[in-house]
Each structure stands twice: as structure tokens, then as C-alpha cells.
Amino acid sequence: MLLIRRFEEACGRLYMQGKIRGFLHLYIGEEAIAVGAISALRPDDYVIGHYRDHGHAIAKGMDPKIAMAELCGKSTGSSGGKGGSMHLFDVERHFMGGHAIVGGQMPIAAGLALSSKYKKEDLVTLCFFGDGAVNQGEFHETLNLASVWKLPILFLLENNLYGMGTHVDRTHAGGRHIYEVASAYDIPGVQIDGMDVLGVNECVSEAVKSIRKGEGPRFIEAMCYRYRGHSMADPTMYRERDEAQELGIKDPIDSLKNFMIQFDVAGEEELAKIAAKVDEQVNEAVQFAEDSPAPDMDAMYTNVYA
Amino acid sequence: MVQLTVREALRDAMAEEMRADPDVFLMGEEVAEYQGAYKVSQGLLDEFGAGRVIDTPITEAGFAGIGVGAAMGGLKPIVEFMTFNFAMQAMDHLINSAAKTLYMSGGLVPVPVVFRGPNGAAARVAAQHSQCYASWFAHVPGWRVVAPYSAGDAKGLLKAAIRDPNPVVFLENELLYGQSFEVPADGEHLVPIGKAAVARTGSDVTVAAFSIMAEVIDLRSLRPLDGEAVLASVEKTNRLVTVEEGWPFAGIGAEIAALVMENAFDMLDAPVGRVSGADVPMPYAANLEAAALPGAADIANAVRRVCYRG
User: Fold this and answer.
1) Which residues contact A301 (CB under 8 A, 6 or more apart)?
2) Cβ neighbours around B150 below 10 Å, total
3) For residues A156 and A128, is the Cβ–Cβ distance under 8 A?
4) What φ, ψ does residue A193 adopt, rounded to 5°?
5) Which cofactors is this protein said to need (chain A) (predicted)?
6) Closest C-alpha to A54, from A14, A98, A92, A90
7) Which end of chain A has the lower number of beta carbons within 10 A, N or C?
């Protein structure tokens, strides 16, 4: 979680320096979901998500150096500099992107699940999406198809209460318990605290067990908070500065730290060592990205066709 | 050689490829138990089972996206749209998920999916069931777009499309499904994507077309477009007429005209003539529909015009 946090903070700084451009959506505050969920998977289970994807990619094992290089548009990036922040892919680790159309990843996720069921592979597909995606037609199409065809897919809703600048109360008919929509498609659903990494891990582990037994899809709504704006371009005029405090939001990293210290799982010194190692990793990633070259001009025409 | 209808040729292409490669499967509305809305997939469910011939609900965006995801997961899906008019619901997945992904991932994620189905006019089915999408799809880099006419080309190009590691948009035509042609009996009959066929040689004018009975050049593929074949012919005849059933504005003919103007300007003895469908949504009335689509008379008139013979 700390690696993702520091990575995202570094991205924010690089963006302000003009070294990352375009759209940048930071995962700060939501780390418990990516880390808690993905650590409950097998290494070759599929993960796919939306454009706020750095946390998912890193949790799936992507090298922060090549992720940072991609964000900086360098040839050493995961997509050769041709995808950018919203299109990180690590096929070897079955991290299948990185998709910029809200809800677009959902039927693709079902397709990955279909492929593993077809090939009798015993893999689960974990599909991340936000509260903004639940009103897209294809959200409903995907849940229906996944249920009818009993696909091995876990739908994980990262509900940070805001679809960009619009609060869910203004957009979602049926109120705050979005997971209840899943029952219309015969998919068992729950709502959990997405700021609690251990709780996320436990819930996802249970769900994945059921899915692997062939019981069909599951739906988890993880409530969370995004500390920064929707993207770097967002001054968050639509919410109060102290909203996080008002809502009693607990930072997922601080929570875990306190838990570990309180229950003697780790001491301050050990945690400081981890923090120092993370800082080193992130600095290394930034340095690698800055030192890497931009793509060659002929890269413009490569990989248009296979 | 055997006599096959276009429908049978398409079915045979799919069956042969499904026999050869267990990763090939078909998905779409009514493809399995109904034997295909236009009976193109007749018999496939019996031979390959419900795991490989999959009936979908009416959910185009959903099943197009699933096709892309299945291709990303290593399978070779054939996604049938009952007609390409309904594919508009799935446009985001066709273009943003299928055509662009290999490039956006820097070559990491190929998407070997085939999207096929009837395109263009049928008979008296009115505006929302009659559009030709050739120009829209050919506009986008990242995939192949093919539009065969004969049964032999339909079979050879569909087999090639299924084997192609790129996404392929395969434009059929409902009115052609029942027409018979001679088809090579050889199971390995493949037609290369991107090559036009010279259906009839001549010296006075080049007529370039697709999906209709072209006397001279049958383009067969729109992306890549066999510009060399067109230019070689224009160098010989010095006059060109393009024919398509879709709308004229920014259509395939417009692209061919630009290509010839840029590469063979001095070869032209007359401006390129374009024959296209009328620039209106397809009307229902029989006489209006007939007038809205290009016919032999329209082509002959255009040919005379470019030959300065009235």
C-alpha cells in the first residue's frame, strides 16, 4: 500500500513539473482495495480495471520503473510509451489493463472469464470498476451475461461516492447500497469497508473460493475515499475540504500501521525500514523514467497490426 | 469446384476453421438453436455443441465486449451481429477495445476477433435496418475490413479472417446469401486480405466496387485497400468510376478518388466518377428504395460521363 501511495505522490509531483501530461487519476486513499483484493488471488488470475489503474498494476506485480516510464511516455514504458497512464498492461502477470471508457472494461472482463472457463483453466477474473460505471448499459449487460453463463468473475465496485464531480446520491436510482443491484441478476453481493485492507482481503478470499467452485459470479461493493481529485485537472469544488474528516475516513495505511504495532506484528523500526525501502524504489522508478528516451519516431507505425 | 451459396460458403468456412482449431467459437443472437437468423450457422450447434456455438441475449455491447475479452484471453471468437445496424450499440468495443488495443498496449495485447454479419441494404427494411457501414469501419486503423461478393471469396476471406491475428470486420450482404457460385472444393482455399480481384479486363474505364457485381475490379478488402490494383488499372484505362451502395459523403469512393488524384493525377483523362447510394436514410416504399440504391443504369451513366460520351 505504501509503495502505491508514494508512487502516486511522485506521479502528482511529476505532473506538476510537466513530465506527465494528459489525464492522471491518482489512487490515493483507495490502496486497501487493490492490495487487499489482489493479494487474495492466485498469480495467474486475471485482473482488469479502469483508468485509475496504477494501484491495480502495482498490486498485480508490475515493475514500478516501467509503470513510471509509461506515464512519462518513454520507450521503456509498459506500452512502449504509446498508452500512457490509463493504459498500463502486464500480460505476463495477467493484468489486462487499464481502460479509459467508463464501464468498457466490464464485458471485456466477462470475456476473460469466458475464456478461462472455455479452456477449463480454473482462473478467476477480478473486474474493478467505480460508482460511475454502474449506470452504464454495459454494466447491466455484463452482470446479466456473467450470471446467465455462470462465469468465474468477481465484480469489485470501488465506491468512492463520486463519479468525477457528481455524488452518487444524484446519479444512482436506488440509493447508497449499490451492491443490491446485483441481486436483480441473481448475483450474491455485499458491501464492505474498502479502507480496511484485511477486511477486503478476507471478503475477496471468500468470494473467490465460491467462484472457483463454479458457483458463478460474486459482487463486492467496497466503500472508500479518494483523497485527491478525480484527476489532476480536478480542483474538487464539489466537496468540502474537510469532508474526509467529517466522514470519519480512516487512512488505510495508518490503520494497518496502528494495527500492526498494537498487535505486535511489527515495530516502529521495522516499519521505518519498509518506508525507506519504498522511498528508494519510487526514487529509482522516477530516475529510470527520467533517464529513459522517448520512443523512436518509427514507433509511430509499429503494432498497429499484429 | 462445387456450387455453393454464399450462405453455405460462410458456414463451411466457420465449420472448417472450428474443426481445425478448438479455440475458434461462434457467438451471437440466434446462432445456435435457431440455426442462425439467416441460417448461416445451420448445423454448427449439432456438430460443435453449445460450448462453441453460443446463443446470446440481445446485448450487443455486452457480447461484443465479451468477444474482445475472450480474444484477449487467447481464444478466437467469431462474433455475429444479426445485422451491422445493431453493431452500433457495440461501437465502443469494436473501435476502442478491439481496433486500438494492440497499439495502446505497445504490442502486448492482440485481439484476434472476427465481427461478421450482413451489412448494407436488404429489401424494404427501411432506414434503421439498411445502412452500409463500410466507410465508418474502413476509416479506423488497427483492424482489417473485408467485403466479399462471391461465395468463393466469402469462404476464402472468412477463413483468412478467422486465422488473422488482427480484429477483422467482415461485411456480408443478406441479399447475396442465397446466390450460388462455383467454389473451390479444396478445404485450404484462402483469399488473402488486402488484395482486389480483376473480375473482367478492359481498356476504356476502370470500375472499382465491392459487395456488388463489379465488372472490373472487385476490391474485396477495404482495409487494407488494394490501391495498387486500382492504380495499375487506371494507368491502363485513364478513367475511373467507383461504385458503392453507401452514402457519398466521405465514402469509400471519396477515398479512392483521393488516392488516384494523389498518385495518378496525370494518368486521369477525366475526373473520377462516384456512384453511391442516395444521400438519405433508406426509404420504405418500393420505388423509392430502388431509386436510392445504385443500379446498372447508374453505373452505365457514370461510365459514359467519364468517357465524355454523355
Assistant:
1) none
2) 24
3) yes
4) -80, 110
5) thiamine diphosphate
6) A98
7) C
Minimum distance, in Å, between the CA of residue B68 and any CA atom of chain A: 6
Write the DSSP string, B22-43: TTEEEEETTSSTTS-TTSTTTT
Residue B218: strand pairing partners: B197, B209
The pLDDT tens digits for A80-117 are: 999 999 999 999 999 999 999 999 999 999 999 999 99
pLDDT tops 50 at residue B215: no
DSSP per-residue codes, A27-83: -TT-HHHHHHHHTTS-TTSEEE--S--HHHHHHTT--HHHHHHHHTT-TTSTTTTSS
Read off φ and ψ for residue A286, nearest 5 degrees.
Answer: -65, -45
Q: Which of A1, A32, A26, A22 is nearest to A12 (CA)?
A: A26
pLDDT the model gives residue B212: 54
- Which sequence spans correspond to the domains of chain A? 2-298
Number of H helices, E strands in chain B: 11, 14
**Spatial contact of B222 and B210, defined as CB atoms under 8 Å apart:** yes
Residue appearing with cell numbers 446470446 = B56
Q: How confident is the model at residue B308 (pLDDT cuts 50, 70, 90)?
A: confident
DSSP-derived secondary structure letter, B283? P
Cα(B175)–Cα(B38) distance, integer angstroms: 10
Q: Which burial class, exposed, middle or buried, applies to B145 when counting CB atoms under 10 A from its CB (0-12, 13-18, 19+)? A: buried
> Which residues share a beta bridge with A46?
A125
Phi, psi (deg, nearest 5) at residue B243? -135, 130
Q: Which residues of B touch A (CB under 8 A)?
A: 25, 51, 56-57, 59, 61-75, 77, 92-93, 96-97, 101-110, 112, 141-142, 165-166
In CATH terms, the fold of domain A2-298 is: Rossmann fold (3.40.50)
Over residues B67-83, mean pLDDT: 98
B140-183 pLDDT, tens digit per residue, is 999 999 999 999 999 999 999 999 999 999 999 999 999 999 99
Contact A107 B74 (CB under 8 A): no
Q: B195: which residues sit within 8 A by CB, 6+ positions away?
A: B220, B221, B226, B229
Helix (H) or strand (E) holding A4: helix A2-16
Q: At residue B213, does pLDDT exceed 70?
A: no
Active site residues of B: 60, 129
Low-confidence stretches of chain A (pLDDT beneath 50)? none
Q: Residues B253-279: pLDDT tens digits? A: 999 999 999 999 999 999 999 999 999
What does DSSP assign to residue B95? Answer: I
pTM: 0.93
pLDDT (mean) for B37-60 = 97
Cα separation, B149 vs B276, in Å, equals 17
ipTM surpasses 0.95: no
Residues ≥6 apart with Cβ < 8 Å to B129: B83, B85, B122, B282
